[in-house]
Amino acid sequence: MATTQHPDNSGLLVLTQPKQVTATCWSCGAMRAAHYCQECGKVQPPVPVDYFAFFGLPYKLNLDTAQLERDFYALSRKLHPDVNSRGDLPEQEWSLEKTSQLNDAYRTLKEPISRTEYLLRLQGVQLEEQSKAATDEARKTGSAKKQVVPPDLLEEVFELNMQLEELRANKKLGEDDPTLERDLSGAKQHLASKQSEMLKELSGTWSEWDALVDRVSAGETVEEAERATVRDKMIDILNRRSYLRNLLREIDEVLES
Amino acid sequence: MATERIIGIDLGTTNSLVAYMENDRPVVIPGEDGLNLVPSVVALDERDQIIVGNAARKYLIQTPERAVYSMKRLMGRGVEDIQDELKLFPFRLADDLAPGEVLRIKLGNKTYTPPEISAFILRQLKRNAERYFGAPVSKAVITVPAYFNDAQRQATKDAGRIAGLEVWRLVNEPTAASLAYGLDKKDTATVAVYDFGGGTFDVSILKLHEGIFEVISTNGDTHLGGDDIDNLLIAIALDDIQGDLGLDVRRSGEAVQTVRKAVIEAKIALSSDEQTTLDVDLPDGKRYQRVITRQQYEQLIRPVVDRTVGPVRQAMKDAGLTAQQIDEAVLVGGSTRIPLVRKLVEDQFERTPHADLNPDEVVALGAAVQANILGGGSEATKEMLLLDVTPLSLGIESLGGGVVKIIHRNSTIPESATEHFTTGVEGQTNVAIHVVQGERELAKDCRSLARFDLKGIPPMPAGLPRIEVKFLLDANGILHVSAREARSGKESEIEVQPSYGLTDEQVEGMILESFDYAEEDFRQRQVIEARNEATTMLAALEKGRKSPAWEQLTSRERANITKLETALNAVTPGDDYQAIRTAIDALNQATMHLAELMMDTAVTSALKGRSMETANVGEGPASPHPIAKAELE
């Protein structure tokens, strides 16, 4: 548990060797404490660490989520405010702070998409904003939203947008169009299956990334270009996926309106 | 560890309960009347004394303007939020409410905020526990509906403080219920808790794993409960009464409360019977009767019951689970006794729900379990840990009135988020931040939590300051904010203007006022004790009169005793502690000789081989004869 790394935004992340943190428990003086003292169980003061470091994990994307859950539970049992409610005031504050770090870290790492996005962010990547807010903003201002239509979906998306417009117009007039709705539901299913394909594609890039991390651990040199290649693949998949997600949300909105 | 017991309290819309862990089992502590449920009714009696619970219920009908119920519906809410409530409930708002002020409710000629009224109930529960333990109680775990927002939670916490309780944790009601149910469970299971109470509805989905109770999702409606069903029936009855009897009693608080009482009885009957008769005695000797069948009733209440479906589906969707993936469904809250509700739960979760524990008590029992965990745990709870979530997303109002979400709903708490803000104008030293809670896109559609003013930012060119604001939702689901200007490292001053709710100063003031009640409690208890002592003494004197010792007194002594006895009889029913005390002391003095003589007779009898008991001196030395008290001590 007691490892930490110092990520920077230069893409050097995988080159940083895990550094052992040795701390002394403020309460009983025993060693090896990072989150809580292994000897007396007292919560240790929080230090700013990234989520991988919090769980003592290497910066790899293939993750044993069952083990992550076990670690989450085990750490919760030590750090949670309920367990430390009878401690002194600073202990209670540390417990609160540490548990909120733990919860953040667990939530981010357990989901594949947020885990990948987080690692990319640690690498200094600004993921293109394709959120709903951006879509609305674009709609409001009339300016074209900065987004990339995945080439393989270009035709489908074009037709879909027409159908959506039509259904919106119909709904405004209070007319039902079962055929159109059925078509849209079908398109929705197709897009959803595309979306899960993308997840598979993404997990393929994880292995490429993890291989680079392993090579670094083995003392090999990894060129920046190699990292950039894998990183760009991941960014591309995430962008396409987020485009799909927005489209699906839009379909849902129109169908449910 | 011989520490003070921490109690678990279910502060309900309709009923409240207090429980604690007794040897690895949570038990409900009964009130003085021997009943577990304390109705959440507060009344002001003729002498302006606060009355709580069953004793307060009669005031709802006798003097409705001096009694309130369902106060939980008003906790943490503003005037504009409760317009619907005002149409359905006889809440009387103070006439002099200023805009933005915390609600105040009229009770007789006094006004109280909802947290103060809830504090009266909490104080009663605290008192019940203290009487039960024979020891003071100052720490409690209080349950709140899972779907309560920050303001409603804060109001509940304030109520605890006003009642003289240190609130160790606010626990979500469905989660608490799962603790009570899960006490014996050590295996892994996914459980859905359907909690339909008097005024609130919650649904939570939890994963149980080796003593960890992890809430995965929660949803609900803080204004949906048995009350709504009552109101439907009341409306029909009032219409009928006007139509059939030509009597408009809508404005008569007394008649409406009589109807409400009858409606609740009918509702309860219809949970077991196929039909019942709504039977109301009205003023002017008129009587309203109507037969209601189960079928009619179900048709009527279906829209209310169906309102729980949306939250149930959303909770399952948020948990990423289907009904088949849920192992157990658990029923909590009095309204789950309604067969139609059970049917709905069965349909939604595709299984027969559990209702092994009394649905009225299970939340309080769970609160007691959580209190035990916080107090250091016991053999039964040492492996147990509750990981709860926040029911609502937390966001900040952005330019243009949108919301930037910083903490999403169903995030495990405690949870924090750090946001950076900057200035838009040269040399700007203040930044205003508006924090909202809710799922809607626009800030105006969300619940306003607070407006923060970051002050004392060092004057810099526009856009240069980096103000780091940290939002922390604690384990109670209550928001804390701190801020720092990152470039100068200077802690920014934050002025918190809660949109709803009491300021710290106001709560402090109410705590001070509540000492008056504590004094009042003490005074009342003194009177009761003195009265009891007087009654015992008068009874003992009756016995003394019949003993041979009485004849040995002089006639002057006898006359004096009789005179003082009459005096004590006269003051005993009153509320004047000093008068009762003085009369007791006087009679005690006057009967000293009689007591001595009686003791002598007793001893003589004992020497003659007769037992103390047959010598008629009472119950023996362990329980001294009141008149002979001085001698035995």
Low-pLDDT runs of 5+ residues of chain B are 609-633
Helical residue percent band of chain A: 55-70%
Global shape of chain B: globular
Largest interchain contact: A-B, 20 and 26 residues
Number of helices of chain B: 17
Oligomer: heterodimer
- Coarse morphology of chain A: flat
Largest sheet properties of chain B: 6 strands, mixed
Low-confidence stretches of chain A: 1-20, 129-135
Number of domains of chain A: 2
What is the number of E strands of chain A?
2
CATH secondary-structure class of the largest domain in chain B: Alpha Beta
**Under CATH, the topology of the largest domain in chain B is which?**
Nucleotidyltransferase, domain 5
Number of strands of chain B: 27
Distance between the termini of chain A: 49 Å
> N- to C-terminal separation of chain B?
35 Å
Mean pLDDT of chain A: 77
Q: Give helix and strand order of chain A, one letter per element, not per position.
A: EEHHHHHHHH
Give me the side-by-side strand order of the main sheet of chain A.
1-2
Structural class of chain A: mainly alpha
Taken as a percent bin, the fraction of beta residues of chain A is under 5%
Please tell me about this protein's structure.
The complex is a heterodimer of chains A (257) and B (633). With 257 residues, chain A is mainly alpha-helical. Chain A has two domains: 120 residues, Helix Hairpins, CATH 1.10.287.110; 124 residues. Chain A contains eight helices and two strands. In chain A, strands 1-2 form a two-stranded antiparallel sheet. The longest helix of chain A has 40 residues. Chain A is flat, with a radius of gyration of 23 Å. Chain B is an alpha+beta fold and 633 residues long. Chain B folds into four domains: 299 residues, Nucleotidyltransferase, domain 5 (2-Layer Sandwich); 80 residues, Actin, Chain A, domain 4 (Alpha-Beta Complex), CATH 3.90.640.10; 109 residues, Substrate Binding Domain Of DNAk, Chain A, domain 1; 126 residues, Substrate Binding Domain Of Dnak, Chain:A, Domain 2 (Up-down Bundle). Helices cover 38% and strands 24% of the residues of chain B. In chain B, a hairpin with a 2-residue loop joins strand 8 and strand 9. In chain B, helix 3 crosses helix 4, helix 6 packs across helix 7 and helix 12 packs parallel to helix 15. Chain B is globular and about 100 Å long. Chains A and B meet through helix 2 and helix 3 of A and helix 11 and strand 18 of B.
